[in-house]
Amino acid sequence: MAIKSLSIRIDEEMLHKLHVVADYEGRSANSQILILIRDAIEKYEEKHGKITLN
């Protein structure tokens, strides 16, 4: 699987809060974002079924 890059716009307060949560969990902000994305996808798939690649 190829690793892709994604750029996001995030306000300063939210970024600060993300760093606080990530530090608390012992993760980098990037790792924390990946976990949040993974959890959101799992929740979606539980409700709507498995997402497939076309």
Describe this structure in words.
The chain has 54 residues and is mostly helical. It is 63% helix and 0% strand. The chain is built from two helices and no strands. It has helices at 12-25, 29-48. Helix 1 (12-25) crosses helix 2 (29-48). The longest helix has 20 residues, at 29-48. The relative contact order is 0.09.
Outline the secondary-structure elements.
Blueprint: H1 12-25, H2 29-48
Helix pairs in contact: 1-2
- N-to-C terminal Cα separation, in Å? 15 Å
Shape: extended
Helix content: 55-70%
Structural class, by secondary structure, is mainly alpha
Query: What is the average per-residue confidence, as pLDDT, rounded to a whole number?
Result: 96
Query: How much of the residues is beta strand, in percent?
Result: under 5%
Element-by-element helix/strand order? HH
In the predicted model, the low-confidence regions spanning at least 5 consecutive residues are none
Based on the structure, what is the oligomeric state of the protein chains? single chain
How many separate helices?
Answer: 2
Number of DSSP strand runs: 0
Question: Radius of gyration from the CA trace?
Answer: 14 Å
Largest sheet, if any?
Answer: none
